[in-house]
Amino acid sequence: MDMKKRITLELRNRSPAEIAELVVDNSRSADGEVEGLTDEFTELEFLSMVNVGLSSLAKLPSLPKLRKLELSDNNLSGSLETLSEKCPNLTYLNLSGNKIKELSTVEALQNLKSLQSLDLFNCEITSLEDYRESVFELLPQVTYLDGFDQEDNEAPDSEADDEDEDGEDGAGPTGEYDDDEDEEEDEDGSEGGEDEDEEDYAEEEEEEDAAGVQGQKRKRDVDDEGEDDDDDEDD
Question: Is 145 helix (H, G, I), strand (E, B) or coil?
Fold first, then answer.
């Protein structure tokens, strides 16, 4: 399905100004350009155009509220300066799996002053010596490159953040408190840990001993019965 038709379907009889999120992944761009998007998408905040055959962003319309842009697995090798002109408020940009080879190409993103996260996975540029250091130096506003910051700390997951917040509200203590509590329990052995294992082991031994005694008792009973039978025969 071509991109223009896909966008029309995604509208579902709504006007472009009502759309905040738009996903057209795996549709096709006939000439490698953005098709079907117009300046009327004034409220668009999230746009995903993964694997649509893009080789240029020249026809990208002005999207002033766009914050997240997914462009992975396309054929882009340049024209990134268009992004700072048309999408000045981007905070997240995924360009992984494109044909970006040079640092000079990425330099065009310097005017995206709000950009916090940039992904360039599976682009040739990642094989350059000092790739990460160079990109962070070129784009000081970027906190996370390929999912990690300059100290190799992983970018927080938005869903995980939501779960943490829920935990704070009512699901009981989380984080370091749990670790400390576990350490205390391990140290004094009063709760859980080795004591429980020892108790379980002792119980199993008792059960085995009891089973053994019963087995011996049954054996003696059978032997006694056998002797009684012999006595009967003698009589």
Answer: strand
